[in-house]
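Per your request, structure below.
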C-alpha cells in the first residue's frame, strides 16, 4: 500500500525525515528495554496486575499499588511513544516507497510485543515469557537499526573478504546466543520476576550458577571471535570504517563483560543489572553495525534506478537523494 506523498507534510516524507524517524525508533526501542528492566528490578511487574487495564476496576494505577503501579503504568505508556514513532516511520517509508518491508516489520513488532508483554503479566511473569519479551525487543532493535543504516547517506567500502564477512556473521550469531543465555541467567536468578500466588518467585528452575557460567563462556567465545575479526580486518586492509566498527564492538564487549562480572560478584545489584541491560543493547547494535559496514548497499543502486520513475513532486521533496547519488 502506498501513502500519497502529497498528503503528508514534508517533515515526514523527505529522506532526512525517514532517517531521523528510523533513528528515533532505534532509540525508543533501547529506552523501552531499559525501562522494562526498571519494572522488573523494582519488582513492579505486577504493579498493574492485569492487562490491558491496569486493575480490574481501573485503566490507571490505583493507590493500592503505590509506586509499583506508577512504574509499570509509565512503562506501558512508553509503548504509545513507540507506536507513534513507528507509525510515522511507516508512513514516511510508504510515501517514499523505500524500505517498506523493514518499516512494516518494525510497526507489526509492537502489537506482537504488547501481546507478549500482556501474556507475561497474565502468567505472573513466567520467566520464559519475560525472556521472549526481551529477545523480541532485540529483534525489533535489529529491524529498526537496519532501517536506519539503509537510509544513511554514506558510501560503504563493501565486503573486505568473504572469510571476514563469514567471521562477522559468526560473531553476530554468537552475540545473539549470549543474549539468549543472559535471559536464561536472569530467569534463573533473583530478579526473575514477582511473587506468584503461592508467594514464590517464578524461576526457570535451572541452576543459576551453571547458567551464569554458560553465559560467561559464550562471552569468552564472542570476545575471541571479535579479536580474530579485528586482526583479520587489519590483515586484509579493510576500510577504516569497517575496522573502526569492529574495534568499537570489541571495546563495548569488554566493558559489558566487566559490568557482567561486577554484577555477578556483587550479587546482582539492580543498578548494575540495569546497566548490563543497556550494555546488552550496545553490544547487539555494535555487532549489527559491523555487519552493516561490511554489507554492500543495494539501496543506493535501487534509488537511482527508481529516479526516472518518480513523480516530480516526489523528487521535489527529496533533496537528499540528489546528494546521495553522486557517491555511487
Ligand atoms: C558481551 C557481554 C555480555 C552480554 C551481551 C550480556 C548480555 C546479557 C543479557 C541480555 C542478560 C539478560 C538481561 C535480562 O533478561 O534482563 C544478561 C544477564 C546477566 N549477565 Fe550478562 N552479558 C554479557 C557478559 C556477562 C558476563 C561476562 C557475566 C559474568 C558472569 C554476565 C553475567 C550476567 C548475570 C549474572 C546476569 C543476570 C542478571 C539478573 O539477575 O538480572 N554477563 N546478560
Amino acid at each position: 500500500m502506498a501513502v500519497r506523498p502529497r498528503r503528508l507534510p514534508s517533515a515526514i516524507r523527505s529522506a532526512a525525515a525517514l532517517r531521523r524517524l528510523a533513528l528515533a525508533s532505534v532509540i525508543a526501542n533501547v529506552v523501552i528495554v531499559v525501562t522494562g528492566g526498571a519494572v522488573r528490578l523494582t519488582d513492579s511487574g505486577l504493579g498493574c496486575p492485569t492487562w490491558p487495564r491496569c486493575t480490574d476496576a481501573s485503566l490507571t494505577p490505583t493507590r493500592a499499588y503505590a509506586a509499583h503501579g506508577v512504574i509499570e503504568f509509565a512503562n506501558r505508556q512508553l509503548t504509545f511513544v513507540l507506536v507513534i514513532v513507528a507509525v510515522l516511520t511507516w508512513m514516511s517509508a510508504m510515501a517514499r516507497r523505500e524500505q517498506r518491508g523493514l518499516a512494516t516489520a518494525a510497526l507489526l513488532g509492537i502489537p506482537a510485543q504488547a501481546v507478549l508483554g500482556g501474556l507475561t503479566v497474565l502468567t505472573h511473569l513466567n520467566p520464559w515469557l519475560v525472556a521472549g519479551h526481551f529477545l523480541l525487543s532485540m529483534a525489533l532493535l535489529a529491524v529498526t537499526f537496519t532501517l536506519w543504516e539503509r537510509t544513511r547517506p554514506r558510501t560503504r567500502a563493501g565486503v573486505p573478504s568473504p572469510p571476514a564477512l563469514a567471521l562477522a556473521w559468526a560473531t553476530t550469531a554468537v552475540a545473539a546466543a549470549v543474549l539468549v543465555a543472559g535471559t536464561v541467567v536472569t530467569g534463573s536468578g533473583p530478579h526473575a520476576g514477582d511473587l506468584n500466588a503461592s508467594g514464590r518467585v517464578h524461576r526457570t528452575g535451572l541452576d543459576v550458577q551453571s547458567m551464569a557460567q554458560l553465559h560467561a563462556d559464550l562471552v569468552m567465545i564472542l570476545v575471541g571471535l571479535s579479536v580474530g575479526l579485528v586482526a583479520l580486518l587489519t590483515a586484509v586492509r579493510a576500510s577504516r570504517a569497517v575496522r573502526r566498527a569492529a574495534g568499537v564492538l570489541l571495546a563495548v564487549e569488554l566493558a559489558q563483560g566487566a559490568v557482567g562480572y561486577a554484577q555477578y560478584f556483587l550479587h546482582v545489584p539492580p543498578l548494575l543489572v540495569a546497566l548490563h541491560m543497556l550494555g546488552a543493547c550496545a553490544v547487539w547494535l555494535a555487532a549489527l553495525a559491523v555487519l552493516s559496514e561490511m554489507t554492500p548497499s543495494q539501496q543506493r543502486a535501487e534509488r537511482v534506478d527508481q529516479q526516472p520513475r518518480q513523480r516530480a513532486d516526489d523528487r521535489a521533496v527529496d533533496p537528499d537523494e540528489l546528494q546521495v547519488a553522486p557517491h555511487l
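Residues 37, 134, 178-179, 182-183, 185-186, 189, 191, 212, 215-216, 219, 222, 253, 256-257, 260-261, 263-264, 268, 273, 276-277, 280, 283 surround protoporphyrin IX containing FE (CB under 6 Å).

Regards,
D.
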